[in-house]
Fold this sequence. Notes:
Number of helices: 6
Helix content: 40-55%
Largest sheet: 6 strands, antiparallel
Distance between the termini: 155 Å
Strand order of the largest sheet: 3-8-4-5-6-7
Oligomer: single chain
Amino acid sequence: MSHTAHIPSHRKPRRSASKLALRAGVAGGVLGTIAVAGAAGPANAEPVTETIEMPTLGSLESGAGLASAVAASAEASHQEALDQSLQAQENAALQKAAKEAKKAKAEADRKAAAERAEEARLKAEQERQEAEERASRDRERTRLAARSAVSSNDGGSSSSFDSGSTAGSGTTETQAPSGTAASIVAFARAQVGDAYVSGGTGPNSWDCSGLVQAAYAAAGIDLPRVSSSQSSMGTSVSLSNLQPGDILYWGSRSGSYHVAIYVGGGMYVGAQNPSTGVVERSLDWDTPSGAVRIL
């Protein structure tokens, strides 16, 4: 055999230093315990004949229990972190919802204030228009009165646009309406108390020409929609010679701004304005400028 050939070793493999130290420590501890016990015993003590069981190293089960406890603690910490995160998200969502609700309320308040302002503006505009209409009627009555006075001084006949002083009490109509006129008058009077709405054509709110048009439609007669066109229909009649169903107008015949229906007895029915609605009034209450007869 060659002197360089490998000769297998018959020695056992060396144990690791940590294992050797562990075993030495355990053995030393056990031997030290025995020695102390022997020294402390009485001198005449009998020799120990029982076998002492050597303690063993900690089992794997105790290590697994420790690992389980550590894992459980980590899981609890993780769950606590999740709970805190969810709580933070809930708080953020509540804060966001509160901000959105506050913003929505502010927007609703702003819109309500804008609507109130618009209503006030429309009311003021309506009142201004009514004041202008009253002033226009007053001017027209003054002009017609002056014209009538001139005609009387010149010995001329009274114009068909007589002033209101003769319109209310000077009418010669004494008979109750009948036939078509009765239908028109009945419809007009049935609407007394309804609201006035600009552009209204019923059934519960009207403007002046809408009411006149509907009253004539109830008798089967078609009229134009606006007051200036309605007062241009038919034949002009004197305010002292009115008959039920005649259309009264304010302003000039071709440019009237208000119309109503004469219902007899010196009375008329008309949709006046938003303050009064549809009313029945005496001719003396607001004397018309003239009248036309459609029937």
